[in-house]
Amino acid sequence: MFTGILIEKDDQGYRAAIKDIDESVLPEGDVTVNVSHSTINYKDALAITGKGPVVRKFPMVPGIDLVGTVEHSESDKFKVGDKVLLNGFGVGETHCGGLAQKARLKSDWLIPLPKAFSPRQAMAIGTAGYTAMLCVIALEKNGITPDKGEILVTGANGGVGSFSIAILAKLGYKVVASTGRVEQAEYLKKLGAGEVIDRKILSEPGRPLAKERWAGAIDSAGSHTLANICASMKYGGVVAACGLAQGMDLPASVAPFILRGVTLAGIDSVMRPIEDRLEAWQRLGDILDPEVFADISTDISLSEVVATAEALMAGKIRGRVVVNINQ
Fold it and tell me: Following DSSP, what letter does each residue of 250-285 receive, concatenated?
């Protein structure tokens, strides 16, 4: 038996709670990990609260991120005692995830814990920071350098947004942060945003083409926000789209793409090849200063997970939440 968050769905309804879980619940895998830290991402909050169709199998341990120590291995890639890290691959959706003391996983999903980070720091980064790094790499590979102009970051108070700002600012970009919580402007400016704007500017229906402003953008909203971003990109601009907080629709026109040569780069973090993951985590280790973790992340225990997920869905959580599994 081990302790974790278990999501169940039956005749009594949909519910998530901290419970003692039998190891028989764990799915097949060639590596068993003693989990030390996990996180609560937006997708985890959807799963825990039942406000989104995230979980595909029941019962399910949520948690798309985890870090821990290998307890048992049938793989030649990892040995007992190795520190490992996981982001995505359907964990917490179709395969039991990281919000429990134990996880059984496929070795192909794991990477070694980067030497630059402690387990706690790696989870402060988590899928959010890793996704942010993938977005920045997409801008770079499409020729968006700091001299090109302003970079817009939407959902700025969230995990992806917070890390996007910190990474971009450290690399010398001029960052404009869009948020629904403009009262948090000082936090965003401390991370490196040069300007903070209200998300309402972008979230309403707009024109097919607007005045050119952004050289690049990292968007976690989708819907009208993404459409308006595309409409206001500079010639040759690049948008890295990684989320759908406003909606999964895209009420846009082709005008920005065929008249201004705008590139819309889709960012998937869930099934990303291992080589891309290793590159992103190496870059994070090279770029991030240790002090950023104190600004971006807070810590909770496993017993606080369900309540924190509700708060996240209500828009009351800033930055990242690290879950100390054994507290």
Answer: ----SHHHHHS--EEEE---SS--HHHHHHHHHHHH
Task: Tell me: do 89 and 138 sit in the same domain.
Answer: no
Q: In the numeric block, which tokens belong to residue 7? A: 């999501």
pLDDT per residue as tens digits for the range 62-115: 999 999 999 999 999 999 999 999 999 999 999 999 999 999 999 999 999 999
Give me the domain span that covers residue 245.
128-266
17, part of any domain: yes
β-bridge pairing 31-39 and 320-324: antiparallel
Q: Whole-angstrom Cα distance, residue 52 to residue 313?
A: 11
Residue 10 one-letter amino acid: D
Name the burial class of residue 286, with classes exposed (0-12), middle (13-18) and buried (19+) by CB atoms within 10 angstroms of its CB: exposed
Tell me, yes or no, whether 276 lies in a domain: no
**Average pLDDT, stretch 245-256?**
96
Q: Is the residue at 81 inside a domain?
A: yes
The count of structural domains within the chain is 2
Q: How many Å apart are CA 122 and CA 127, to the nearest integer?
A: 9
Q: Specify the CATH number for the domain of residue 14.
A: 3.90.180.10
291 pLDDT band, cuts 50/70/90, is confident
The C-alpha atoms of residue 324 and residue 327 are separated, in whole angstroms, by 6
Residue count of the chain: 327
Residue range 14-38, pLDDT digits in tens: 999 999 999 999 999 999 999 999 9
Shared-domain flag, residues 10 and 105: yes
Rounded to two decimals, what is the model's pTM?
Answer: 0.94
271 pLDDT band (50/70/90 cuts)? very high
For the chain, give the mean pLDDT. Answer: 96
Q: Is residue 135 over pLDDT 90? A: yes
Which SS3 state, helix, strand or coil, does residue 302 take?
Answer: helix
- Are 224 and 98 in the same domain? no
Say if residue 256's pLDDT is above 90.
yes
- Could you tell me if residue 83 is inside a domain? yes
CA dihedral 77, 79, 84, 86 (to 10 degrees): 50
The Cα 77–Cα 236 span in angstroms is 42
